[in-house]
Specification:
- GO terms for molecular function: misfolded protein binding; unfolded protein binding.
- This is DnaJ homolog subfamily B member 11-like.
- It comes from Cyprinus carpio.
- One of its GO terms (biological process) is protein folding.
- The chain is an alpha+beta fold.
- The protein has three domains: 41 residues, no CATH class; 112 residues, HSP40/DNAj peptide-binding domain (Sandwich), CATH 2.60.260; 92 residues, HSP40/DNAj peptide-binding domain (Sandwich).
- The chain is 20% helix and 42% strand.
- The protein contains six helices and eleven strands.
- The strands form four sheets. Strands 6-7-11-10 form a four-stranded mixed beta sheet.
- A hairpin with a 5-residue loop joins β8 and β9.
- α1 packs across α2.
- The longest helix has 16 residues.
Length: 297
């Protein structure tokens, strides 16, 4: 009995009538068709080049690109020690270039891409081309901006306050950021060291011997009482706890005020009678001593 096999011509007819299968037949042959190749050209190159396969193929695969940003701007903001102590709000007026939409279109987001063209069975040609998107036209316009900066209590030198999107613009992306960098100005009375405040007080020789009372005007105007009824030596110090700067992280914690005393000796010379009178009054024997005063430092 003769058996006619209609499967071969039927398969060929089916392939020739199916555009996609005909391309597969031209590329891989009959064996490739039987094995069910459905890979695209991009898949072919992915198998050879791995992660670089996105560069090839007639159909470009979308890739995630970082959004371009304008430059960041850092501006020094000078603040007084009074503002560090009490806090403050400062208004800063700035002329900022802003990107505005203009009539017309422009090319944007341009990049190099590889395109693959099939020349025949198993033959491909790769070409590099510049691909750009079409975006609305942009122009830069200067605008006056008023920014309010909060000077927090206890703020430290070189700390920065960021303002998102207030930096330089980018016509194809997002503007950069603006950061105000704190610069604490020198003070004529107080010196800052961490949360502590240091100051010097000069007293007379009489005050150093018999005692004194005085008031120091603090950064916010309140008075700090200072008094001694004992002898005060040059370089002696008094600590006033809680009279320093507020801590930046916890304003309920405050440093100390450290007062160092200097003694102002009389400028005029004493005569012999005055010298004898002082010796009689103090009744202090000579106590000259030579030693290493810097030991331990």
């Amino acid at each position: 009995m003769f058996h006619c096999d209609w499967s071969a011509p039927l398969s060929v007819h089916h392939v020739l009538s199916d555009e996609e299968k005909r391309k597969q037949y031209d590329t891989y042959g009959e064996e490739g068709l039987k094995e069910g190749h459905h890979s695209s050209h991009g898949d072919i190159f992915s198998s050879f080049f791995g992660d670089f396969g996105f560069m090839f193929g007639g159909n470009r695969q979308p890739t995630g690109r970082d959004i371009p940003r304008g430059n960041d701007i850092v501006l020094d903001l000078e603040v007084t020690l009074e503002e560090v102590y009490s806090g403050n709000f400062v208004e800063v007026v700035r002329n900022k270039p802003v990107a505005k939409e203009a009539p017309g279109k422009r090319k944007c987001n341009c990049r190099q891409e590889m395109r693959t063209t099939q020349l025949g069975p198993g033959r491909f040609q790769m070409t590099q081309e510049v691909v750009c998107d079409e975006c609305p036209n942009i122009k830069l316009v200067n605008e006056e901006r008023t920014l309010e900066v909060e000077i927090e209590q206890g703020v430290r030198d070189e700390m920065e306050y960021p303002f998102i999107g207030e930096g330089e613009p980018h016509i194809d992306g997002e503007p950069g950021d603006l950061r105000f960098r704190i610069k604490v100005l020198k003070h004529p009375v107080f010196e800052r060291r961490g949360d502590d405040l240091y100051t010097n007080v000069t007293i007379s020789l009489v005050e150093a011997l018999v005692g004194f009372e005085m008031e120091i005007t603090h950064l916010d105007g309140h008075k700090v009482h200072i008094g001694r009824d004992k002898t005060t030596k040059p370089g002696a110090r008094i600590w006033k706890k809680g009279e320093g700067l507020p801590n930046f992280d916890n304003n309920n914690i405050r440093g100390s005020l450290i007062v160092t005393f200097d003694v102002d000796f009389p400028k005029e010379q004493l005569d012999d009678q005055q010298k004898d009178g002082i010796r009689q009054l103090l009744k202090q024997a000579p106590s000259q001593k030579v030693y290493n005063g810097l030991q331990g430092y």
